[in-house]
Write a structure and sequence with these properties.
The complex is a heterodimer of chains A (154) and B (386). Chain A is of the alpha+beta class. Chain A has seven helices and four strands. Chain A has two domains: 53 residues; 81 residues, Glutaredoxin, CATH 3.40.30.10. In chain A, helix 6 packs parallel to helix 7. Classes of the chains: A alpha+beta (154), B alpha/beta (386).
């Protein structure tokens, strides 16, 4: 859990308080804190003067606007056909072994979350993953393990 | 049918001086720009293939003080990655194409809706957008573009779902009519065009409609950027003239053992080897937004179908029953047949369900699920059963 503090107010000043401001505000909260807490969504509803159900309804529609606890680094492994053909399972196996979690879980220190995602647009360089917003492509178990070690030291 | 063979073209990524093209465009009247598009025969490059000139003409005809040009950069179709490449290499032409479209329809405001998966591109795009705004100012023209981000929803590539998303709502498609040309984003007349369409429009203004019609066939004018992936020694982005057969494509991009090509992504069609020679890639044959996936004989077509159905089941917005329940039942159905829990004739029932979805689903997502389903089951029935 994180404290939203002044963040929602600052973001509302930046993006406005209209309905169309909702997505940019939620996106920026997620960029900063990786997921949306109930408290954050209620606060957004208050700032925009809409019901909290509207905020939750919108947030829960979009896979990148997580309403469940997520780690500092969200690893999204592409599972669509080309990545799946080109070794996605080996990448997942390596990640699960390194992070000691299964797909869908978050490490106890809240550093990493591991999830599968649909096509991220790197089929010609499969298999590919996203770590937060950064794509990593043409992965091998060796390559992905080097990348994760780097993140572990951050 | 015309067959142009496989020819590489370099128009989309060609480096140009956008300022000169824009000055040329702004000297033209709205009607002249639209006539150029109509003469060129350009059809939308996102996959649906609606004539761009007509879209602009309808939007231009609407009386409204506020109109929008929206660039659909929510490239989510499995196997498509050309719009990312275009935005990375020639965003000046995307922004330029939007300004030309704006002039044509009478819009002063452009919005690029970029998929959340491409957020890493935003810092560079913002710098390029700044230079674009400076240039437009120098020319003395009033046009402004802003970027809106998606958040991981395939359905937001559907135009009306995309508008809902820009407006800060769930990305659920709207009923049509009214069409976007009448009532689009913020309920204003809107022309929504794919990234590549806008770049192509700019190239048509630069080189002239006549030059463009040299390429392609009667039904599929021009060249197009293809996203090639799967079992190929040369995956990547290739701009090719429209009008080649799948066979000609496979001769160049195949690995010598190509069993099938999925043309147009998960919502497109599966072409088996025996139909390579007779199938034209284009609106007269199998249309594509650019996605070309090759599969060799080591691949299981059941896995392909299962992967796609899993994709659609997750990405269906859930608003209309034919799509929400239809996707789930198709997925469960093929699993049952594979496991032997249902007879192979059950596939015939599922084919009927796919037909019903085509008629009854509210938007293009649900209507297209049957394309892949029927072409894969139809051509590789034994692989689905055994």
């Amino acid at each position: 859990m994180y404290q939203v503090g002044n963040l929602v107010k600052e973001l509302s000043d930046k993006h406005g308080r209209m309905r169309e401001s909702l997505m940019p505000i939620l996106q920026e909260i997620v960029q900063k804190h990786n997921y949306l807490t109930d408290e954050a969504m209620v606060e957004v509803a208050r700032e925009l003067d809409i019901s909290a159900a509207e905020v939750y309804g919108t947030a829960s529609f979009y896979t990148f606007l997580d309403t469940q606890v997520k780690g500092k680094y969200v690893i999204r492994v592409c599972k669509t056909i080309t990545c799946s053909m080109k070794g996605k399972s080996d990448i997942i196996q390596t990640l699960e072994d390194m992070l000691k979690i299964k797909i869908g879980e978050t490490t106890t220190d809240k550093q990493f979350s591991l999830i599968e995602t649909n096509c991220i647009g790197w089929c010609h360089k499969a298999p590919a993953i996203l770590i937060n917003e950064m794509p990593y492509t043409e992965l091998t178990p060796e390559k992905v393990s080097t990348i994760i070690k780097d993140y572990m030291q951050k | 049918m015309e067959n142009k063979g496989l020819n590489k073209v370099d128009l989309i990524f060609e480096k140009i001086e956008p300022k000169e093209v824009l000055i040329k465009a702004f000297k033209m009247s709205s009607a002249e720009i639209i006539q150029n598009m109509l003469d060129s025969g350009l059809k939308g490059r996102g996959g649906a293939g609606f004539p761009t000139g007509l879209k602009w003409k309808y939007t231009a005809a609407e009386k409204s003080s506020e109109k929008y040009i929206v660039c659909n950069a929510d490239e989510g179709e499995p196997g498509t990655f050309k719009d990312r490449e275009i935005l990375e290499r020639v965003s000046d032409k995307v922004h330029g194409g939007m300004a030309i479209a704006g002039k044509a329809i009478g819009a002063k405001m452009g919005i690029v809706y970029l998929r959340g998966e491409y957020r890493y591109m935003l810092p560079k795009l913002m710098i390029e957008l700044d230079s674009f705004h400076k240039m437009i100012k120098e020319i003395g023209y009033d046009f402004n573009i802003e970027y809106r981000m998606g958040s991981g929803a395939y359905i937001c590539g559907e135009e009306s779902a995309l508008f809902e998303s820009i407006e800060g709502k769930r990305g659920e498609p709207r009923n049509k009519p009214p069409y976007p040309t009448v009532s689009g984003v913020f309920d204003k007349p809107t022309s929504i065009n794919n990234v590549e369409t806008l770049v192509t429009a700019m190239m048509i203004i630069q080189h002239g409609a006549k030059n463009f019609t040299q390429y392609g066939t009667k039904d599929s004018r021009g060249s197009k950027v293809f996203s090639v992936s799967g079992d190929t020694p040369t995956p990547g982005i290739f701009e090719l003239e429209l009008g080649m057969t799948v066979q000609q494509f496979v001769n160049v991009f195949g690995d010598g053992d190509t069993k099938a090509v999925q043309v147009g992504g998960a919502s497109g069609f599966c072409v088996p080897r025996k139909k390579f020679a007779e199938t034209i890639i284009g609106f007269e044959g199998v249309p594509t937004g650019g996605s070309m996936k090759l599969f060799n004989s080591s691949r299981s077509m059941y896995n392909l179908l299962h992967n796609y159905l899993d994709f659609f089941t997750e990405e269906s917005c859930g608003q209309c029953t034919p799509c929400r329940v239809g996707c789930q039942q198709l997925l469960k159905g093929v699993e049952k047949v594979k496991k032997g829990e249902a007879k192979s004739t059950y596939l015939n029932e599922l084919m009927k369900l796919a037909d019903s979805m085509k008629i009854a689903a509210k938007c293009g997502l649900g209507q297209s699920v049957g394309n892949a389903f029927k072409s894969i089951v139809g051509n590789f029935r034994e692989e689905i059963i055994y």
